[in-house]
Amino acid sequence: MKYDTQGFDPNVVDEIRTVFDRGEDIDRIDxxxxxxxxxxxxxxxxxxxxxxxxxxxxHVLNFFTYQEKSKRTMNMSLPQKDQLNNYVFGLVGExxxxxxxxxxxxxxxxxxxxxxxxxxxxxILWYVSAxxxxxxxxxxxIAQGNIEKLEKRYPxxxxxxxxxxxxGK
Length: 169
Prior knowledge:
Blueprint: H1 12-21, H2 28-43, H3 46-60, H4 63-70, H5 80-107, H6 114-134, H7 139-153, H8 160-167
């Protein structure tokens, strides 16, 4: 599996140390994760390093932060029902665009346009976040609840046997 680490700069450790020395608040876990990522990088453990960088970056933008940042582009001037219609129609439209990309892959011989797929999935995430925000639902809690449900449903990970057994209940 390939991870995108283009934005990673090992010199950022010095920047964090400077901020820390000035007495500004830095989350200790982020510092430890960053040091760990640098350590992996320096040792040449490429895959572990890339995974650690991704884990560090996940601390920076989580579902809560995403939802809060995405709210600024919601059209709050509309009444709630009109906002809901706007977001549901937008969600369905973006799902349609995603399906069209996949249709071209399955039936027209196209390669998957990963940057475009990434954009469409991002648009879907925005609409899901907007709908959750409209009803004061926390996207972080939604994601966590979904993971907990899946862990109960497939405690050993997905398998066809577990899925078939689940259907029989």
